[in-house]
Amino acid sequence: MEDMSTVSEVLNILKERGYTIDFNLHDNCLICHNNSLQVFPDEFVVDKHYRFEGLTDPGDEAVVYAISSRKHNIKGTLVNGYGIYSDNMADEMIKALNKKENTTDENSDLGIDEKSNNATPQRPEGDRPLDGPLVEIDLAEFKRQIREEETWKLKDRNAITVFKTHGMNIVLIAMHEGAVMKTHTAPGIISVQVLEGQIAFKTSAQTSELGAGGMLALHAGIPHSVIAVKESVFLLTLANAL
Predict the structure, then answer these.
(1) Which pTM does this prediction carry?
(2) Rg of the chain (C-alpha set)
(3) Which residues sit opposite 77 in a β-bridge?
């Protein structure tokens, strides 16, 4: 199988395989970039998807979907940077895009599906449980894992999504001393809980220095940056508007 480590590499290979249409995501349909054709949930299937976990916050996550429609005789790709639960997407679109990923179990009547992560170039093993009626999260093991991965050795930070459901993402992030997350915004309310080390969390109005045990919350859309004063590990929780 091809070594596809970036979004652009995936898109190039899929284009060679005939996925030549660029789809845009709308509330209740896909729109073809070139001719504004609308493709509704019951008119397409997801043949394959490729997930790339972000290294800073959940907003960095990207998913590339390889999509085909027999009705319209087209194949194309959709790149979604915030996951399929962003904005005010209709339930039919969520189900259509997530159909290949989700498997239901005896708890499906509760409206909760069991979900696992999919293999990525960074973590090719996949199958890590991300959602379910009850998900146990071993933070000590996740801290060990992200510090042993090549990304931690080569870059100034590493991160792993430990829980993801409709309306909430929890990401464990480790940063080397002096590492900086440049100013960015989040699409929902966030909380930051420091487990180890010390960070400086900055907005235009305030700077908060948090050590182990410190925690803060920030409303959606407020630009902020993070500096690791010491080597640090913290939990970032993003609560998206439902």
Answers:
(1) 0.60
(2) 19
(3) 22, 66
How many beta carbons lie within 10 A of that of residue 156, not counting itself? Answer: 16
User: How many CB atoms sit inside 10 A of residue 34's CB?
Assistant: 10
Quote the DSSP letter at residue 233: E
171, 161 contact by CB (below 8 A): yes
Q: Which one-letter amino acid corresponds to residue 150?
A: E
Distances (CA, A) of 240 to 90, 170, 189: 15, 11, 7
Q: What's the CA gap between 145 and 211, in Å, rounded?
A: 22
- C-alpha–C-alpha distance, residues 201 and 129, integer Å: 30
> Closest by alpha carbon to 103, among 89, 116, 118?
116
CA dihedral 174, 179, 183, 188 (to 10 degrees): 10
Question: Are the C-beta atoms of residues 146 and 158 closer than 8 Å to each other?
Answer: yes
Q: Which residue has the tokens 């309310």?
A: 189
Please give the chain's pLDDT, 242 residues, in tens.
344 456 788 888 899 999 999 998 777 789 886 777 999 988 999 898 777 655 444 444 677 889 999 999 999 998 876 444 444 455 677 677 766 443 333 333 334 445 555 555 455 555 677 788 899 999 999 999 999 988 899 888 998 889 888 788 899 999 999 999 888 888 789 999 999 999 999 999 999 999 999 999 999 889 999 999 999 999 999 887 55
Residue 44 phi/psi, 5-degree rounding, is: -145, 165
Between CA 207 and CA 166 the distance in angstroms is 31
